[in-house]
Amino acid sequence: MRQLPVTYTPAAGKESSALVNNPYCGFYQLNGYLPSEEEDADSAYDWAFQICSNNPHELMLLEINLKNYNDGWLSQNACDQIDRILSACSDTGQQIILRFLYDWDGQAMDTEPESRSIIENHIRQLSSIVNAHTDCVYIMQGAFTGNVGEMNSTHYGSNEDMTALVSLLDECIDKEIFLSVRTPAQLRTILKRKTPLTSTEAYSGSFPARLGLFNDGMLGSVFDLGTYDDTPFEDPSDYTEKGTREEELDYQNRICEYVPNGGEVTLDNEYNDIEPAVADLRTMHVSYLNDAHDLAVLDKWKNSSYTEDPVFSGCNGYDYVEAHLGYRYVLTDSSLDFHSLLSDTATLYFTIENTGFAPAYKQFEVTLTATNTQTGKEETIATTLDNRGISGSDSSIFHQELNIRKWDPGTYEITLSMKDPVTGKIIHFANENETENDSVSVGTLRIK
Predict the structure, then answer these.
(1) Which parts of the chain sit beneath pLDDT 50?
(2) Where are its TM segments located (predicted)?
(3) How far apart are CA 383 and CA 106, in angstroms?
(4) What residues does each domain of the chain span?
(5) Alpha-carbon distances, residue 104 vs 130, 224, 254, 311, 359 (angstroms)
(6) Cα 356 from chain centroid?
(7) What is the H or E stretch that residue 300 is in?
(8) Is 6-17+328-447's fold the same as 26-324's?
(9) pLDDT tens, 393-445?
């Protein structure tokens, strides 16, 4: 019999105000390590294992200070320590934003190597170690240079030196790992282009497709402490010039659809009052922030209320920011298209909203499961959905063919789940109806 009566009821797609912990985003903890010949690989592993195990966040910014080796090659012992630290991160499932540097005290001019070639040799030495840990190293920040590794007050701040070092990182570091530099002007200078990254270039593995930003002066002033300028762009072909705050926010809004952006907020001022702060964090698509700097700003958020989002009515500003750093998926609606006589397959449509500040920059495995409520039999459908296209503060409609003519009659509960193939972690939805097995209810299908 060809005719197959079917009814479909969508699940209620309502967002919860709960915090959901997902990979690649959120507040991060900062920790630093100084390799030396007085230490050994086992003690380095133990140190890293302990701090990773006690980290309440998905992310950690790991700073490794190489100043003890600023006059030549890294020793095998130093390399072994770094390798074992990253092994501990892998073993504990800790995701790393990695920054190599030669200074923690604002004295980079005194501790940096005397020649760029020494830094380049360190990059080459460390690349094989870093590349062996793509399961935990998410982003590499900076070019090994500057005060606290922030690419300022350095012997190697010229356009030539900066471009050479970051280009070498692009050449040596695995394409699965994002790179990042301190300012939009530096990024444009290194790439020798003023036009922002486009959707057709994104995720291609090219240099522009993996080079993002980190801003440790975020919301610190109208200029974000030297990140922006007080005069507008003048020459469309001059990729080295800085723009105004408004121009650079617009630039970040465009490129950070495809590459990560994060850092730390600083200096209590009007730009980091909660309402303008949320607006700018959303425009910049910020996905990660330091959990301990600047405490004056973070405490101000904790003592404020964010009232612009009815889902989070009564929520303090800090909790609101934490819940929206990076991506925050909500399945909001679904429908089924099926003609009981003419259709060979049914088409399930579902809408995923991203209420977070930024997209996810990694593609996840997305699976639909239809469970017969009478027999418990499951129909599992792998999808080709690319979640990276769900922009921050936007939504996307996806569809999936279901071969329901081969299913037994009965009532099916349809759920959707996401998983990160790199870390193996479940991607949690912010729906009120997220199920106990970490999936989200899509709807109920009845086949008569």
Answers:
(1) none
(2) none
(3) 50
(4) 6-17+328-447, 26-324
(5) 21, 21, 32, 41, 32
(6) 11
(7) helix 295-302
(8) no
(9) 999 999 999 999 999 999 999 999 999 999 999 999 999 976 667 899 999 99
Report how far residue 7's alpha carbon sits from residue 198's, in angstroms, rounded to the nearest whole number: 42
Instruction: Please state, in angstroms and rounded to a whole number, the distance separating the CA atoms of residues 439 and 322.
Output: 22
Give the amino acid at 145.
T
* Distance, CA of 159 to CA of 169 (rounded, Å): 15
Please answer whether residues 400 and 414 qualify as being in contact, where contact means their C-beta atoms are separated by less than 8 angstroms: no
Look up residue 133 and give its two tokens.
Answer: 């840990």
pLDDT tens string 217-273 = 999 999 999 999 999 999 989 999 999 999 999 999 999 999 999 999 999 999 999
CATH class of 26-324: alpha beta
Report the largest interatomic distance among the alpha carbons of the chain, rounded to a whole angstrom. Answer: 84
Residue 217 φ then ψ, to 5° = -120, 25
- According to DSSP, the residues that pair with 399 across neighbouring strands are 349
Name residue 167's amino acid. Answer: S
Three-state DSSP class for 279?
helix
Q: Which helix (H) or strand (E) holds 251?
A: helix 245-255
- Whole-angstrom distance, CA of residue 112 vs CA of residue 124: 17
264 within 8 A of 213, measured Cβ to Cβ: no
Distance (Å, whole) CA 413 – CA 432: 16
Strand partners, 398: 350
Name residue 418's beta-bridge partners.
366, 427
**CA-based nearest residue to 134, from 163, 108, 96, 169:** 96
Compute the distance between CA of residue 70 and CA of residue 111 in angstroms, rounded to an integer.
Answer: 7
Q: Are 194 and 186 contacting, i.e. CB atoms less than 8 angstroms apart?
A: no
Residue 39: which region, alpha, beta or left (left: phi > 0; alpha: psi -120 to 50)? beta
Q: What is the Cα–Cα distance from 72 to 419, expressed in whole angstroms? A: 43
Q: Are 158 and 148 in contact (CB under 8 A)?
A: no
The b/e string for 319-331 (b: 16+ C-beta within 10 A; e otherwise) is: bbbbbbbbbbbbb
Query: SS3 helix, strand, coil % of the chain, rounded to 5?
Result: 30, 25, 45
